[in-house]
Design goal:
The complex is a heterodimer of chains A (183) and B (233).
Chain A (H helix, E strand, L loop, with lengths): L7 H9 L4 E2 H11 L8 H13 L3 E7 L6 E6 L1 H12 L11 H13 L1 H27 L5 H36 L1
Antiparallel strand pairs in A: 1-3, 2-3
Chain B lengths: L1 E12 L2 E12 L3 E5 L6 H8 L7 E6 L2 E2 L5 H11 E4 L11 H11 L4 H14 L15 H13 L5 E5 L7 H18 L2 E6 L2 H4 L4 E6 L2 E2 L16
Parallel strand pairs in B: 3-8, 3-9, 6-7, 7-8
Antiparallel strand pairs in B: 1-2, 1-4, 4-5, 9-10
Helix pairs in contact in B: 3-4, 3-5, 4-5, 5-6
The chains are: A mainly alpha (183), B alpha/beta (233).
Chain lengths: 183, 233
């Protein structure tokens, strides 16, 4: 799992449900289908495929060598499809922990340097958030954007909006938080 | 090039100050979001810039014109010819069809009936609601009404559009559809837009943001989202 808790293993299984692919195709498909997500590294794709093969969830389905190095294609097995279905049906626990770096920084800033430091940080962070939100809104309104681009931009925009509301609320609360830490 | 300028604008409602000396410059063709929590003075600023309200002190300049020194009659004429105004609720005339509502500003400006109707239908089409031309507001959804109101605000091809929470009463999908369409049209026309909102996702459509808090500019921009109250948690 990466830092956002997304299971690359299951995403790759899902991509293979469309038909066999070799590692390079899988990497490209991942980055295309999950736009605005962190691109997956080649190394991670191959390491994951190795693990999936060991566990019987994928199997090699052919080799080709069209004018380049030999490439192995991987296909989903029955067990792999069952694992994928299981993951797709599994309900994610709604926000079980507050894991945001924003939250951690504000909490630590108040502890270490007090309210002014937390405020300075929030002001700067807010400006960065708004800039990103504007850039994503451009993606959303660009007629060239694909549905995938728009859905991804929407996801990011609404999460940034939630952060921005939290930033505004926190500024009003930081003074209280500071007093609480000091007492 | 600056098209709108406010310098030290002060406005009070009775003893209650709404603006405490606000100065901003807005460039031609720019989309500027004016943000801040409820009661921060953002609507009052929009009304002063649009010449709807006259400031108690300070200057409002549109191009070369000092609007704060103009009579209501002169400002009203300017609003009809150069400005478009869009509010949270479309304020369409319920007895008139969409096309008649949209044609209204043109008829007031002396355009012939047939020509006004043609332009109105074209603008309804640009906002994606041409099929509603002969429908009355009571038979439309909130989103459709706002599209008609937007067409009406733009039908005179104003140089500046003033929009006060134009999507405030719409759900988020309807809101983004309207804003997407609005932004496309105003970019085509190079219309300057002053967009008042308390919502960051709406401010995201603007080129830049001017934040107000307690009637003054808030350089940190931290007044954006309304907080539930500053007392307790």
């Amino acid at each position: 799992m990466n830092s956002e808790g997304v299971s690359t293993t299951h995403v790759l299984l899902g991509l293979l449900a469309h038909g066999p692919m070799h590692g390079y195709e899988l990497k490209r498909s991942h980055d295309q289908r999950l736009p605005q997500a962190k691109p997956v590294a080649f190394g991670q794709v191959y390491a994951t495929l190795g693990r999936l093969q060991r566990d019987g969830l994928v199997t090699t389905s052919g080799h080709d060598q069209a004018g380049g190095p030999e490439r192995t294609s991987f296909a989903l097995t029955e067990a792999g499809r069952a694992r994928l279905d299981e993951w797709l049906s599994e309900i994610e626990p709604p926000a079980p922990f507050v894991t945001s770096a924003l939250f951690a920084k504000v909490a630590v800033a108040v502890l270490v340097s007090g309210e002014a430091r937390a405020r300075d940080y929030l002001v700067a962070q807010r400006a960065a958030h708004m800039e990103r939100l504007r850039a994503l809104t451009l993606v959303k309104t660009d007629p060239e954007s694909s549905l995938g681009d728009v859905v991804a931009a929407d996801f990011a925009i609404l999460h940034l909006d939630a952060d921005l509301r939290w930033v505004a609320n926190t500024l009003d609360r930081v003074a209280d938080l500071h007093r609480e830490v000091q007492s | 090039m600056t098209i709108l300028r406010a310098r030290g604008v002060v406005k009070s409602y009775g003893p209650t100050p709404a603006l405490r000396g606000v100065s901003i410059d807005i460039a031609e063709g720019e989309i500027v979001a004016v943000t801040g929590p409820s009661g921060c003075g953002k609507s009052t600023l929009l009304h002063c810039l649009a010449g709807i309200l006259r400031p108690d002190a300070g200057e409002v300049t549109y191009g070369e014109h000092r609007l704060d020194t103009w009579s209501e009659r002169m400002r009203a004429r300017l609003r009809r010819t150069e400005f478009g105004v869009l509010f949270q609720f479309g304020q369409l005339v319920p007895e008139l069809t969409a096309a008649e509502n949209v044609a209204l500003p043109l008829l007031l400006a002396g355009t012939g009936r047939r020509e006004a109707r043609t332009a109105a239908v074209q603008w309804l089409d640009r906002l994606g609601v041409a099929e509603l031309a002969d429908t009355r507001p009571g038979e439309m959804s909130g989103g459709q009404q706002q599209r008609c109101a937007t067409a009406r605000a733009l039908v005179t091809e104003p140089r500046v559009l003033f929009a006060d929470e134009p999507t405030g009463a719409l759900d988020s999908r309807t809101s983004e559809q309207l804003l997407g369409q609005l932004v496309r049209v105003v970019r085509d026309q190079r219309t300057t837009v002053v967009l008042v909102t308390h919502d960051a996702t709406v401010a995201g459509y603007a080129d830049r943001e001017v934040s107000l808090r307690d009637g003054a500019l808030d350089p940190s921009g931290l007044g954006l989202t309304a907080v539930q109250g500053r007392h307790g948690r």
